Amino acid sequence: MKKILQIVLLSILFISCDSNERNIKKTFNRLNAGETSSASKYIWPEDHKNLYTFEERFLSENELLSFDIETIEKLNDESYKVTLNCSNGNEELLTYFKSKRNLLSDIKIVDTFFVKKANGKEYLKFDWDLNEKSISNNIKLSSILVEKINLRSGPGKKFNVIGQLEKGEELLMDDNYENSNWRKGFYFEENSSIKEVYFSSQLTDRKEISFFTLNWADSMGVIVISILGLIVLFVVYPLLFGALFRTGGDGAGAFGLILFVVLLVVVYFTYQIIETAIFELFIINLPF
């Protein structure tokens, strides 16, 4: 058993030495699976707004959109040239890549991804900033407080109404915009374009935004998650099954039911551990 554990740990150490090339593969694998929050762990934090915008405009409404990596060429330690096959992209997305001269054919995209380092970790720059009007780095979230609010083309009632939102709906706002009566926001249209809009500050609120929140498994390193998995497998499960088999006497039914519920919870967390570990080690995406 000791040798098995040593082999497992050595394998984990060997395979989990993440290169930037692996991080590129992980990012697009997660995006193709619709797991943008999980993909965000590999992206430079200041570029999360770009990833969020990309998700809102293209990924959330098109489950068939995918980016399949064809080749990755290392240019130097801080840049990689990536060739992607884009399937089921809409006209606006392809037009954007064509304007950047990244579109080689109807589906083939070539782009360079840069690496940034902070606190001993390496992240990928995500500069697919697909905005006609650049979104400010100082972004907040605004919620509608009344039954319905007009979105206007400028800061004032003299400007045309170009849309409406209802109570409880939210949109991004530029917190750098200075006007005591009006806020400047960004509205995602059905055709995937972004429209700059203005709306009343008295009828809306303002709050901080966290673009992506990692689940507990994604927030851990592969070494930690693998060790946790071994503890659950060799310690938690034997204790639970032992307690289930020893259950007897008065109150056994209620106690057994509690243990069974605990077991189901442990199985759920075990699957998350397995999914995260397999993905980090082998870049295989299990259903989540």
Question: What does this molecule look like?
Answer:
It contains 7 helices and 10 strands. 22% of the residues are buried. The strands form 3 sheets. The chain has a 4-stranded antiparallel beta sheet, with helices on one face. The protein has a 4-stranded antiparallel beta sheet with strand order 5-8-9-10. The protein is globular. It has 3 domains: 18-124, Nuclear Transport Factor 2, Chain: A, CATH 3.10.450; 139-200, SH3 type barrels (Roll), CATH 2.30.30.40; 222-282. 38% of the residues lie in helices and 24% in strands. The mean pLDDT is 84. It has 288 residues and is of the alpha+beta class.
Give the helices and strands as they follow along the chain: HHHHEEHEEEEEEEEHH
The CATH class of the largest domain is: Alpha Beta
Number of helices: 7
| CATH architect. name of the largest domain | Roll
Nearest-angstrom radius of gyration?
24 Å
* Mean pLDDT metric: 84
What share of residues is helical?
A: 25-40%
End-to-end span in angstroms?
31 Å
Q: Which blocks of ≥5 consecutive residues have pLDDT under 50?
A: none
Broad shape: globular
CATH fold label of the largest domain: Nuclear Transport Factor 2, Chain: A
Order of strands in the sheet with most strands: 1-2-3-4
Please state the oligomeric state of the protein chains shown: single chain
**What kind of sheet is the major sheet?**
4 strands, antiparallel
Structural class: alpha+beta
Number of domains as seen in the coordinates: 3
Q: Could you tell me the number of beta strands?
A: 10
Residue fraction in strands: 15-25%
